[in-house]
Specification:
By secondary structure, the chain is an alpha/beta fold. The chain contains 16 helices and 13 strands. The protein is 46% helix and 17% strand. Residues 381-387 have low confidence and may be disordered. The structure holds guanosine-5'-triphosphate and magnesium ion (MG). Magnesium ion (MG) binds next to helix 9. Residues 220-379 form the TrmE-type G domain.
Length: 458
């Protein structure tokens, strides 16, 4: 890794209160000092202090910007190198001018993610923590943010390390048996291998189990709103999106196409799909719309079936309920402000009470119940438990699966009394695969691939 000094704008480009340029490297302080004028000399300043002054053109001493400069000396900084942060007035022109001037002093423009990459290469964070920094930036909901934050803190890493520790113990035990077979009873070693592999495998399975939730937190639950025309599907989309995204009229068949909107319901990100009302129709455009509704319904992770509680159940609705009884679905009895004509008994015949929600979108009633029902389905109320680690990264999931397979192989070999040094190979493979998750044994290209996903300045 080159130890040169790098800089980038670390705040979003655009108008804002302030913009921050981050500089990191051995020469960060002297290079920034060349263009900074203030009462105290930057090179004489204490670490973790803030200095008011001006960025000046060194040749002419012309003042370019009024700034605050923060210095954080190695190793107590994000990158573990000397870091200087220059806070300028927000605005594209001002911040670019300052950055240009810094680059003219011999500082190199940082690549995307290079600051975080340095934090990793300098040993401040491991790979799962670095990857979580991306998730933190991209988090679309409170819950996704919390999960990413846990990972940044090293929660997943410490669990992986614990598993690897157990495998090391196991390998040591087996090693003794290979080197001094007379000191050990083969039977006992076989039992020991079985026990340890089982324990580690159970833990890997638990982590994999959380993967589905982790993915949802990152990408959103694909949620289709379906039902007959005019029951209030588009009204529901608008209510959850808190804007008039879809056209709402009292004419049945208003929505013809699938409308997508990303919303956040009780901290859970949903990719909502409003669809055309499902019914038999001769209108060709509407027919295409209905086909699209059916596709959305087939592919969704969650289905919100909207029924009009002021009308009797229709045959298509009975068919939909039958079809949805075994899926992840919530039934919404809408329009409860009107007189009830729906046969609720039939609805409850297909769906458990916690899957049925009564709403009036006109009066804005029952939305909180809907939120509860949705989080109930996906998190069984468990997400708040602070000790849960969610595995959400595809790379981690793939490696956990590989490690699990290696242990399955080891167990099988163990059952067949295959020579113990062969079993050792599988155990070592599992240990290495787990190591790859935290970046103990990863190649240069993978590291580059991970860090280029970052935005500039991070
Ligand atoms: N009284 C009452 N009317 C409602 C309620 N929710 C929606 N509506 C009305 O029902 C009509 C249809 O609403 P939409 O949201 O367009 O229904 P939709 O299911 O999207 O209809 P299509 O797009 O035609 O399939 C509109 O006139 C809404 O104002 C409610 O809770 N109570
Ligand atoms: Mg509609």
């Amino acid at each position: 890794m080159l130890k040169d000094t790098i800089a980038a704008i670390s705040t979003p480009l655009g108008e804002g209160g302030i913009s921050v340029i981050r500089v990191s490297g051995d020469d960060a302080v002297p290079l920034v000092e060349r263009v900074f004028r203030s009462k105290t000399k930057l090179s004489a300043a204490q670490t973790h202090t803030v200095h008011y002054g001006y960025i000046v053109e060194p040749a002419t001493s012309e003042r370019l910007e009024e700034v605050l400069v923060t210095i954080m000396k190695a190793p107590r900084s994000f990158t573990m190198e000397d870091v200087v942060e220059v806070s300028c007035h927000g605005g594209i022109v001002s911040v670019k001018k300052v950055l240009d001037l810094l680059l003219q002093q011999g500082i190199r423009l940082a690549e995307p993610g290079e600051f975080t990459k340095r934090a990793f290469l300098n040993g401040r964070i491991d790979l799962t923590q670095a990857e979580a920094v991306i998730d933190l930036i991209r988090a679309k909901s409170d819950r996704a943010f919390k999960v990413a934050l846990k990972q940044v803190e090293g929660k997943l890493s410490s669990q992986i390390k614990l598993l690897r520790h157990q495998l090391v113990e196991l390998m040591a035990h087996v090693e003794v048996n290979i080197d001094y077979p007379e000191h050990d009873v083969e039977e006992m070693t076989n039992a020991f291998i079985r026990n340890k592999c089982d324990t580690v495998m159970a833990e890997i399975e638990r982590l994999l189990h959380t993967a589905q939730q982790g993915k949802i937190l990152r990408e959103g639950i694909e949620t289709a709103i379906v039902g007959r025309p005019n029951v209030g599907k588009s009204s529901l989309l608008n209510e959850l999106a808190q804007e008039n995204r879809a056209i709402v009229t009292d004419i049945p068949g208003t929505t013809r196409d699938v409308i997508e909107e990303f919303v956040n319901v009780g901290g859970i990100p949903l990719k909502l799909l409003d669809t055309a009302g499902i019914r038999e129709t001769t209108d060709i455009v509407e027919q295409i719309g209905v086909e699209r509704s059916k596709t959305a319904l087939a592919e969704a992770d969650l289905i919100l079936l909207v029924l009009n509680s002021s009308e009797e159940l229709q045959l298509d609705e009975l068919a939909l309920m039958q079809q949805l009884a075994k899926r992840q679905a919530i039934v919404i009895l809408n329009k409860i402000d009107l007189e009830r004509r729906i046969d609720v008994e039939t609805v409850y015949h297909y769906f458990a009470p916690e899957r049925v929600v009564e709403l009036s979108l006109l009066e804005g009633k029952g939305i909180a119940d809907l939120e509860k029902a949705i989080s109930g389905i996906f998190f069984e109320g468990k997400l708040e438990a602070s000790d849960i680690t969610y595995v959400s990264n595809v790379r981690h999931i793939a490696l956990l699966k590989q490690a699990k397979q290696s242990l399955v192989d080891a167990l099988e070999a163990n059952e067949q009394y295959i020579p113990i040094d062969m079993i050792q190979i599988d155990i070592r493979a599992a240990w290495e695969q787990l190591g790859e998750i935290i970046g103990d044994s990863v190649g240069e290209s993978l590291i580059d691939q991970i860090f280029t996903q970052f935005c500039l300045g991070k």
